[in-house]
Amino acid sequence: MTADRRKRHLKILELISTRAIHTQEELAEALSATGWDVTQSSVSRDIAALRLVKVDGAYRRPPRGGSARDPDERRIAEGVLTCEPAGDALIVLHTPPGEANRVAVALDRLAWPDVVGTIAGDDTIFLAVKDPAAQRGVLRAVRKLSAI
Question: How many CA atoms lie within 13 A of 19 on its CB side?
Fold first, then answer.
């Protein structure tokens, strides 16, 4: 996936998490208003790639797991939009606006032994890990929880 497509997907996830988007045309207009040059067919492909579903007529991320899941794991599953390595001992997570602190607290409460600490902004979390092996393991764990 290209970096532009990844950024567009992140913007789509942000848009649908902050307002009700009911049609592909509405999504294309919202993307255009934020500077993205898209067509209805590219939006359609993005919706399919992101596996978006309609809930009460509006696009949403697909539901994750059952109700038996730990509340902190559920917070991570619902809040993490992207998860990427940075260097050898850092992971950068993106969340919807205003959700980074909640997701970081959930990560801290899980107390994974390979995680050294977290720093959260509004929609970005820096997750420090012990070493490159720990980074790979934590990346796998977060991606498994959030299905990204």
Answer: 10
User: What pTM, to 2 d.p., does this model score?
Assistant: 0.65
Write the CATH number for 112.
Answer: 3.30.1360.40
- The dihedral over CA atoms of 14, 24, 51, 98, expressed in degrees to the nearest 10, equals 10
The number of domains in the chain is 2
Same domain, 32 and 92: no
What is the CB neighbour count within 10 angstroms for residue 103? 28
Nearest to 34 by CA among 12, 1, 60, 3: 12
Q: Which residues, 6+ apart, have CB-to-CB distance to 63 below 8 Å?
A: 53
Q: Are 100 and 123 in contact (CB under 8 A)?
A: yes
Domain match, 75 and 38 both: no
In-domain check, residue 66: no
**118 and 83 co-located in one domain:** yes
Q: What confidence tens digit (pLDDT) does each residue in 7-64 have?
A: 898 889 889 988 999 999 999 999 999 999 999 889 999 888 888 888 889 998 876 6
